[in-house]
TrEMBL record, chains A, B:
UniProt GO MF annotations: manganese ion binding; metalloaminopeptidase activity
The EC number(s) this enzyme carries: 3.4.11.9
Species assigned in the record: Sphingobacterium psychroaquaticum
GO cellular component: cytosol
All residue ranges annotated as the Aminopeptidase P N-terminal domain in the record: 2-134
Keywords recorded for this protein, A-Z: Aminopeptidase, Hydrolase, Manganese, Metal-binding, Protease
InterPro entries (UniProt xref): Aminopep_P_N (IPR007865), Creatin/AminoP/Spt16_N (IPR029149), Creatinase/aminopeptidase-like (IPR036005), Pept_M24 (IPR000994), X-Pro_dipept-like (IPR052433)
Cofactors required: Mn(2+)
SMART domains linked to this entry: AMP_N (SM01011)
Name this protein carries in UniProt: Xaa-Pro aminopeptidase
Length: 463, 463
């Protein structure tokens, strides 16, 4: 946990952003895998961690905006629990570290909420994403699950606060990046011809675990870099394959890292891979250089896209005017997703609160329908204190090419003939994490090698 | 998956045990960790795996008892999904492998159930343990979550069927045991003075993962063997410590293994540890020898307990008549839990269906109140085809001793003075998995060393 003052100040800042009523936070539960007592590793809700720091299952908390007090609802261990699980710090002692003086049994929350309902007080809550929270909210508020109405003013207040990272949060993120960077180097040493995808995943998990971290998300480790969400790891890397490794860890306090590297299973890229890699790297570096407060991330995304299109033009896969191609979304045959996203206590920070609120504004809302741009999680103007990823890529997806080619879609920008040679090329992505500073940006964590030369030298050194 | 015929026959056998109506099975979903698209590893519900073999999230199935047909409800991938996740086998093709000819979109399940409700057909379902299933059942059946009434006849039919393991299920369990056995040997080699608990856990996970398995449950790896459910791994093993390792894996089809060994971090046990270990081993071997059809597991549990009490008497921690001590539950100061449990697709097999139905009978119901015996998950007469664990132990729990001693509880059987010397002794458990055969029993999986001599020799060989 951070200091007691941290949590007290964060809650005070939240109160200042809201008018009146009660804010209700539900913590996460121990989620059953295949029966009640066989559970997944516990992960507290990130907003709960942010305001209370308590990594304890089955608790809830309220902030009373009118009476300026916080209460945590949860049960102390019974003697049966102590016999089974050993003596532990009491919930009350844990809460004291969060600056919460008052705890109350779980069962008393419904009475508390009932009183608030009776006195017609506003009860603010965030959108629930775990089913257990949906049920509990439904029961507490006496509203069907499908009719729960999260508080937009609360969402906006939390997003405003969590978006600007404190120095101690940056330190945690950089801890996560320290471990993730070493983990990626390990993967580069292991990811050779004959290696299985899962061998890299398991070795990374082992490394992260031994360094007091866990995966921040299911890693993507694949010879099919064009598959954006690949969570099966049964392929073997062969000669000519690239390894795409998108993986990051979170610290014990819950702060994430999110890095991607693409490297040859062999000790060198093929000439074609090198050309394509350089296009992605150019796009990465050029867009990174634009990071600064006041610039919209959407404009940086579009810039990154133009660099990709120019590169694809240079090698003959695209043609025509670059700006026109981007305006027509022709690039989305090769770059289907967004340039990056916020990162913090969640790898896609605050995604549970809604991308519209996290990444966009009422004045410039998210485009939720156009293929490509609808996957851009962050579009709004940057502010100092934001932490985000930059992750351009090129993905050659046979199924998508077939669909586009069947209707000769945007053929003025796409050379479908040439594309045949690339059908099984795969995909490339490069991703780092940055802090927006008053002056511009700062790379978070150690530098992880990413030039063609550095990667080939590293592979050769460990061959 | 097993053969198509396997699933067809299992569903036919279930139909034969039930009269009429519809059986509704909900599969598990991808469970969110901290936001909707960041999920825990998917694990299908075990009963769903048993009857359909489909390890696919967000599907459901019905067996129509009257019309003799099965339908799986789920959605095929959209082109967006294929772009994001790659081309995959269709749900229809997967269902064909399960002998299910008819699939229907997820959305049509509510119409199907509504029709069944309108025609007053019985809708059988099992007790939901994941919150997502509770919500879905509540919405489908239009009943509040707290009023859902699972079908006892269905529970009994499923338990009767799943309790008797098929030869191919035994083969899977033995695959899990093959991997778990090697994993335990790895832990013995690693578990030395100076090792951290988590280093063993992470190395075991790495080994299991590289052998196409995953943990069947959060492992217990601890220098505090007396803590029965210890899932924090931050201690370092010191001189004089024992390592208690209770861990098992499940295969890709979902079949579990569940082994426990206790060994010295040093290369030898202390004399006191050796004596206590031998008591547990004697209890283990003596109770194992009683395994055979027709014998109640409760009687074997009581026999194992008597052997423990005799041993504790021999070293001076208990006193008085052994049978009287057991009848008075005096042993439960040292052995607070049950001798074993069923194992199969779940490590505690079918625990979601209710211990009363899995481990007991209407005639001999479970004792749910007496400390000690209330934790015995299996009490009923054994049948050929059962797979179960035997896992006696001795646990010296300071908090429990203090409570008992404060009231001088059962002092005629317990030597509280002598017990002072043992206050920080810790705990010992030994656990293997067995199949009940017509003749008696068979140890499943390879023999994993467990005598004092074998363990010390192994530790010395790798020191
Ligand atoms: Mn990312
Ligand atoms: Mn067990």
């Amino acid at each position: 946990m951070f200091s007691k003052e941290t949590y007290i100040q964060r809650r005070a800042a939240l109160r200042n952003r809201l008018s009146s009523g009660i804010v209700l936070f539900l913590g996460n539960i121990d989620n059953p895998i295949n029966f009640k007592d066989n559970c997944y590793p516990f992960r507290q809700d990130s907003t709960f961690l942010y305001y209370f720091g308590l990594s304890v299952p089955f608790i809830a908390a309220i902030i009373d905006l009118d009476e300026d007090k916080s209460i945590v609802f949860g049960d102390e261990l019974s003697i049966d629990d102590i016999v089974w699980m050993g003596q532990q710090e009491t919930l009350q002692a844990k809460c004291a570290k969060s600056g919460v003086a008052q705890t109350s049994p779980s069962g008393s929350l419904s009475t508390f909420i009932q009183k608030a309902i009776d006195s017609k007080r506003t009860i603010h809550f965030l959108p629930p994403y775990q089913s257990s929270s949906k049920i509990r909210l439904s029961e507490l508020l006496q509203v069907p699950v499908s009719n729960l109405k999260p508080s937009v003013s609360l969402i906006k207040a939390v997003v405003a606060q969590r978006s600007i990272k404190e120095p101690q949060e940056i330190t945690e993120i950089e801890k996560a990046l320290q471990v993730a960077t070493e983990m990626h180097l390990l993967a580069m040493r292991l990811g050779n011809i004959g290696t299985k995808e899962y061998e890299i995943v398991n070795a990374m998990q082992h490394y992260a675990g031994d360094h007091n971290c866990s995966f921040a998300y299911p890693p993507i480790v694949t010879r099919h870099g064009e598959i954006l969400h690949n969570h099966h790891y049964h392929n073997t890397f062969g000669k000519g394959d690239m390894v795409l490794n998108d993986s990051g860890v979170e610290t014990s306090l819950g702060y994430a890292s999110d890095l991607t590297r693409t490297f040859p299973a062999d000790t060198t890229f093929t000439p074609l891979q090198r050309d394509m890699y350089q296009i992605v790297l150019d796009s990465f570096e050029s867009s990174r250089n634009l990071l600064q407060p006041g610039v919209s991330f959407k404009s940086i995304h579009l810039h990154a896209t133009e660099i990709l299109v120019q590169g694809l033009k240079d090698i003959g896969l695209m043609r025509g005017n670059v700006a026109d191609a981007v305006a027509a979304h022709a690039h989305s045959l090769f770059f289907q997703c967004g340039l990056g996203h916020m990162m913090g206590l969640d790898v896609h920070d605050m995604e549970d609160l809604g991308e519209q609120y996290v990444g966009y504004t009422d004045e410039n809302p998210k485009d939720t329908t156009t293929f490509g741009i609808k996957s851009l999680r962050l579009g709004k103007e940057l502010e100092a204190g934001y932490v985000l990823t930059i992750e351009p890529g090129i993905y050659i997806i046979p199924e998508l090419i077939d669909i586009w080619q069947a209707e000769n879609k945007l053929a003025e920008f796409i050379n479908y003939d040439k594309l045949k040679e690339f059908r099984h090329f795969g995909g490339i992505r490069i991703e780092d994490n940055f802090l927006i500073t008053p002056e511009g940006y700062r790379l978070l964590g150690p530098e992880l090698i990413k030039s063609v030369e550095d990667i080939e030298n590293y592979k050769q050194a460990y061959a």
